[in-house]
Write a structure and sequence with these properties.
The complex is a heterodimer of chains A (563) and B (353).
Chain A (H helix, E strand, L loop, with lengths): L23 H7 L1 H19 L3 H21 L9 H16 L7 H18 L5 H23 L13 H4 E5 L1 H10 L1 E6 L6 H11 L6 E5 L6 H9 L2 E4 L6 H16 L4 E3 L17 H17 L9 E9 L6 H14 L11 H13 L4 E5 L16 E2 L5 E2 L6 E2 L2 E2 L3 H22 L1 E2 L1 H16 L5 H5 L7 E2 L1 H20 L4 E2 L7 H11 L10 E2 L5 E2 L3 H9 L11
Parallel strand pairs in A: 1-7, 2-5, 2-6, 3-4, 3-5, 12-14
Antiparallel strand pairs in A: 6-7, 8-9, 10-11, 13-16, 15-16
Helix pairs in contact in A: 2-5, 2-11, 3-4, 5-11, 6-14, 11-12, 12-15, 13-20, 16-18, 16-19, 16-20
Chain B lengths: L11 E4 L3 H11 L4 E4 L3 H10 L1 E2 L2 E2 L4 E4 L2 H7 L2 E4 L3 H11 L8 E4 L5 E2 L18 E2 L1 H8 L4 E6 L4 H5 L4 E7 L2 H11 L4 E6 L2 H23 L4 H21 L4 H4 L2 H12 L4 H10 L4 H7 L5 H16 L4 H11 L4 H9 L12
Parallel strand pairs in B: 1-2, 1-6, 2-5, 6-7, 7-10, 11-12
Antiparallel strand pairs in B: 3-4, 8-9, 10-11
The chains are: A alpha/beta (563), B alpha/beta (353).
Chain lengths: 563, 353
């Protein structure tokens, strides 16, 4: 017997804005040239503020060139423009000349800085085109549906059926109505958890399915190496985040791009974890750079909105993506373990090309593995909950003014250190919201319980010792395992009542069925399955590291205490 | 930041007209008009009539009031200085009138505890960090105010009133709060330092009261400066271990709020905590001592809480433990001392690594 998902209530949502020309992201792309110029100009001004004298500026420019040349030598990607070596070589020549020149006049340095930030701004900027957006959207929907029907109903000709739609596979739960309301009143900054490269496409589909206008994305430039991705991302309004570039001009330009786009009302999305979770755990610390742009944008909106006009509010919406299976899990956990074990840096690799992805999709649609997307309650930029009207609420439910956080002595002030602190507070808030809206699947439960049981049986082994556990010890009695699952599930129910976590509907019901559902789905498409039944009906594993990866999804709730 | 002056028209608020609260109100009154909130109407009448409170001659521009709403409406900057046992209930009353633009800098050196239902402080055996909070954490939990700071350091109220040279630390995550505190408090006899480790500084200020009681006890036994030197240096080590377990960093304990305050309170008969220890050694019981005092000695409760935290986090805290036994069980000061002198662990410094 199959454990059935509760009938999916997801209905079709009507778009909240009728025509694409009304979308903020379209407005932005129509004035793309002016926008890039504005980004470059303001980034230039910001950097000049940060590096007020000639020596500091020159130092940073030299460091930038050095790092860029190192990057090109060590880690070149397919997407990198062919002219970049020439570009940086020329900048270097100029800088060598300038470094011998005395005086405080920075006219020449300014010109170089301008060239660099303009180049970066162009590189970062997305290119949203309504025509290709429509095309990409219909291609995804059409082919996903075809695949789904062909795979599910195993009959020739099923490929033309419409029995199943994507909505049956991907469940969207949580504060959908509120999100749609807020998107009409203010600017949404969506911040999802990040486990897989597929997240970017998935979340794009979700935004469309919810009837929201396209968002601008911060997508890792590495994704543009993969051609399928590059096509979709470009058409969905993605801007490019290159994590190899850590130099000051780049980081400031990137932040300026995000900040200005938000100020102009473009709904935005970025993964605040910065990169895919290596350990499989929900992000505990977030990257503060892009997050700070939301706070900066809100402050500027308050500062620049003329009297009498209502300042546009920015809403932070945390989202968790919940999977039974993460395609890249074996590589991610391997990276995590080797970094943890030896404290060394491994460059990012993407082993999955277009072909592997397609193969995965076919499998995904064929088998029972569902994905759920939980939409969190909207927050203001300080992490306070907002109601459906977009008003911020304090812990007691009293309406408060977000503007007040930026006041000193009655005036809105710009205080970088204060906003850094606010960013840190916001990031902690988002992390705790992630844990709250995280949807526990049966597969998470069984992975967690199995790994913790093995850990408990070998209290003297550290993580690496445990991962090398001899095969004959890798068996768990079903009865014992079942009891532990029951206790943990009970604790999950309790936490849910306290509003500390959420779980899928399939977690309820007979524990044996839930366990079987979990066992069948955990890491379903991996070559070596993290958990299996043996002939005697007991629990074994083929890959402890993978099991550890799926187990990590439930860390941070103190569930190990009830095992 | 824009270079706007701290507005001259808005007064600064002080909550709590105790000894330290009155001293701080007078310090602030040198720069700004001050509203001093007192719960007790009699206190207000006394200040209005005689301009005197708890031995402090109150400055003219300190206006006593009894209305928290008015206080929050008129002041952007507030200094809550009430005993830790009333702090949370005071915050609950104040909270409805607070906005995110308010800045709160507290001067309370004690812990807040939340006990499970049906329990008293006597009946719980262990306490952890989810039950024990510093005052800044209480402010964050009970109100929308985020710009929070604390005031700590060797600040004996009577010496401040007499304008002896002194200094204080303002700790906050926000430089803005530190610089507000500096501008409001600094004068030619009073130096103000800043520190970003808010919890560390709070913990240092709270935990030093334990050692102050112990120091009073040594004094009451008639022992001299060698004994005191021993106690203070071992006391710092113990404070640091406890403080780290509760979420502070070592550094804060080495500054004004830690060692600075410790040396002062451990040497001063003006300190209430010192007096508790002193009287204990003379043979008075805790009950008698507490009845003889007009204000709360925070250290007594701190010993109780810190001991239970040490048990939970398995921190070695011999001074706190024996003091606990003296205060709440029937160990005498003499027995406690002989136990401590035979205590086996004797590494001088083990907190710097």
């Amino acid at each position: 017997m199959e454990v059935l998902e509760k009938k999916n209530k997801n209905k079709k949502y009507r778009p909240i804005l009728d025509g694409i020309p009304d979308w903020p992201v379209y407005q932005l792309s129509r004035n793309r040239k002016e926008f890039i110029e504005e980004v470059a100009f303001k980034s230039f001004e910001r950097i000049k503020q940060l590096r007020p004298n000639r020596k500091q500026l020159l130092d940073d420019l030299q460091a930038t060139v050095y790092r860029e040349q190192q990057r090109m030598k060590r880690n070149r990607w397919r997407v990198d423009p062919p002219d970049e070596q020439r570009f940086w070589a020329r900048i270097k020549e100029k800088l060598v000349e300038l470094s011998n020149k005395p005086g405080e006049d920075t006219a020449e340095e300014d010109k170089i800085l301008q060239r660099i930030v303009t180049r970066y701004a162009n590189e970062i900027a997305g290119n949203f085109k309504p025509s290709s957006y429509r095309l990409a959207r219909s291609i995804t929907t059409f082919w996903f549906n075809r695949l789904l029907n062909a795979a599910r109903v195993k009959k020739f000709g099923a490929i033309f059926r419409n029995k199943y739609t994507l909505r049956d596979k991907i469940q969207i739960v949580g504060k959908v109505k509120q999100l749609r309301k807020l998107a009409r009143q203010g600017t949404i900054v969506m911040v999802p958890t990040h486990f897989s490269n597929l997240d970017s496409i998935l979340i794009g589909w979700v935004i469309h399915a919810l009837g929201l206008p396209a968002f601008i994305y911060g997508a890792g430039l590495n994704l543009f190496n993969i051609k399928i991705f590059a096509y979709f991302m470009n058409s969905l309004g993605a801007y490019k985040v290159d994590r190899r570039k850590k130099n000051l001009p780049y980081l400031e330009t990137l932040k300026m791009y995000s900040s200005l786009a938000i100020q102009k009302g473009a709904h935005s999305l970025f993964f605040p974890g910065g990169t895919r979770s290596r350990s499989g755990a929900i992000e505990k610390t977030l990257k503060l750079g892009l997050l700070s742009t939301a706070i900066e944008a809100q402050r500027n909106i308050y500062l620049n909105t003329p009297d009498g006009e209502e300042p546009r509010k920015i809403f932070i919406v945390p989202v968790t993506l919940n999977y039974h299976f993460v395609l890249e899990a074996p590589d991610l956990i391997e990276e995590y373990l080797s970094v943890k074990g030896q404290d060394r840096y491994l460059p990012e690799q993407d082993k999955y090309g277009s072909f592997q992805l397609l193969r995965f999709l076919i499998k995904f649609f064929g088998k029972g593995s569902n994905i759920s997307v939980s939409i969190g309650r909207g927050l203001d930029v300080m992490g306070n909950y907002v109601n459906d009207e977009g008003q911020s609420l304090d812990a007691q439910g009293r309406v408060i003014q977000t503007r007040d956080y930026f006041l000193s002595n009655g005036y809105i002030t710009i205080d970088k250190q204060r906003e850094d602190e606010y960013t840190r507070m916001l990031s902690q808030r988002i992390v705790s919201e992630y844990h709250r809206i995280n949807r526990v699947f049966a597969s998470h439960l069984v992975a967690f319980v199995a790994f913790e049981l093995w850990q408990q049986k070998h209290p003297k082994l550290d993580l690496f010792g445990l991962l090398r556990l001899p095969e004959e010890d890798q068996v768990l009695e079903y009865a014992e395992f079942r009891q532990a699952c029951k206790r943990v599930r009970k604790q999950i129910y309790r936490l849910k009542e306290e509003g500390k976590v959420n779980h899928a509907t399939h977690l309820k019901g007979k524990i044996d069925l839930v366990i079987r559902h979990g066992m069948e789905n955990v890491g379903i498409f991996h070559l070596n399955r993290p958990l299996l039944f043996n002939k005697e009906g007991n629990i074994i594993t083929q890959d402890l590291s993978l099991l550890y990866y799926y187990h990590n999804r439930l860390t941070g709730y103190d569930l190990e205490k009830v095992i | 930041m824009t270079s706007k002056k701290l507005s001259d028209e808005k007064p600064v608020g002080v909550i709590g007209a105790g000894n330290f609260g009155s001293a701080v109100a007078n310090l602030l009154a040198r720069q700004r008009n001050v509203l001093l909130y007192a719960r007790d109407v009699k206190t207000i009448e006394r200040i209005l009539k005689k301009r005197e409170n708890r031995g402090h001659k109150m400055k003219k521009n300190v206006t006593p009031i009894n209305d928290l709403k008015q206080l929050a409406n008129e002041c952007d900057i507030l200094f809550p200085i009430v005993p830790s046992s009333h702090f949370r209930s005071m915050m609950r009353q104040l909270s409805p009138y607070l906005h995110p633009y308010h800045v709160l800098i507290h001067g309370t050196k004690g812990f807040d505890i939340t006990l499970p239902k049906g329990h008293t402080i006597e009946s719980v055996t262990k306490l952890n960090r989810s039950q024990v909070k510093t005052m800044s954490e209480v402010i964050r939990e009970e109100s929308v105010v985020v710009r929070v700071g604390c005031l700590a350091g060797p600040n004996l109220s009577k010496e401040l009133a007499a304008r002896h040279p002194a200094a204080t630390v303002i700790a906050s995550h926000f430089n803005e709060v530190i610089s507000i505190g500096k501008r409001l408090l600094r004068n030619d006899r009073f130096q103000v330092y800043g520190n970003n480790d808010l919890v560390g500084v709070e913990l240092a200020g709270v935990l030093k009261n334990i050692i102050a009681i112990a120091s009073g006890a040594l004094h009451g036994m008639g022992y001299g400066e060698n004994a005191r030197g021993l106690l203070i240096s071992r006391g710092v080590v113990e404070m640091i271990h406890l403080g780290r377990a509760l979420g502070g960093n070592t550094k804060a304990f080495l500054g004004l709020a830690g060692i600075g305050d410790l040396v002062t309170t451990s040497n001063s008969e003006l300190s209430r905590n010192f007096q508790v220890g002193n009287k204990l050694a003379q043979g008075m019981t805790l009950k008698e001592i507490l009845e003889s005092m007009d204000e709360v000695a925070e250290g007594v409760n701190t010993v109780r809480i810190a001991k239970k935290c040490a048990d939970y986090y398995r921190v070695r805290a011999p001074i706190t433990n024996t003091l606990y036994q003296v205060l709440f069980e029937d160990l005498t000061v003499k027995q406690a001392l002989s136990y401590l002198m035979r205590y086996p662990l004797n590494v001088d410094i083990d907190f710097l690594d």
